[in-house]
């Protein structure tokens, strides 16, 4: 029995290597795939037949001959199937239909307010049901992949703890699979963004990196020697709940002085609103026509781009707190690159520049020598691309 298991494992591994080669180098001939990976022609032929049968790849004409018959070329067919990617943050649910390269075909954003706890889940099911009605046919749907903040048990598909949405031990995977009969994945959002940058973004060649999300909350994901470090219960990377002030602000998690409360959007927002209430002048007031309810991260970034002094000073304070946390992470993990993502970091060159300055000043020189601090490469679709990456990685086992 053991030998059969080994054989099946090797076949699956070969299939994923072959698929990865076609994805990267197609159109490509079967003999070229064999040569590149030092695999036997029969192994390649049988794996390619399976991939064609499952419509993940297709034959596309012929290549140059080396004297014999012209070889038939095969290539990846990213539009042969689709998947549903969902991101649930503290403020919104984003749902998208994507192809096998995580290209977005259709996308909707729904505000999550005023839902909390069980009602968030009921609302999520309604959103999925309505969105699926817009799909041509579910026969070619690979499944549904969901990413969210907090501690997630990705093996069992359970949200263990999400203080923002007041969810504990929510069996999301089981609930969705029962309702829609579609295979479902669930993972922590920041882990998913890191996976997306590694598999479909610009960061494929890094083996040690950190992804830090600055948005409604603050989270981190750790890639260590090419594998995501999840910790014992899946809670590794809860960067936002590291303590920086024992006498500080009370956090949603019950503790006091968590870093998240000095760095995330709700904090920036309340600083802006209280400064405006005290009569400080700011470009923000004009941008939202005096309606503070309309201040969003995008408005804040716009004010920064126009060098609004109030916004710049709040950003500098935020960057300084964030950098203190990053200095700790750098000393713990010695990363090659730190990717800054989330709504606050999106297209925010000033934040990245300020954080870099502080980090270079305070972290140990040897650890910052070739350290890069960069924005995410997947832009504003990173949330749903993260969800797609979780499904694609689990299905195809792309090399990390
Ligand atoms: Zn906390």
Automatic annotation (TrEMBL):
The keyword Coiled coil does not apply. It comes from the Bacteria. Keywords: Carbohydrate metabolism, Kinase, Serine/threonine-protein kinase, Transferase, Xylose metabolism. GO terms for biological process: D-xylose metabolic process. Transmembrane segments: none annotated. GO terms for molecular function: protein serine/threonine kinase activity. Pfam families: ROK. InterPro entries: ATPase_NBD, ROK, WH-like_DNA-bd_sf, WH_DNA-bd_sf. Transcriptional repressor of xylose-utilizing enzymes. Belongs to the ROK (NagC/XylR) family. This is Serine/threonine protein kinase. It comes from Brevibacillus formosus. The lineage of its organism: Bacteria, Bacillati, Bacillota, Bacilli, Bacillales.
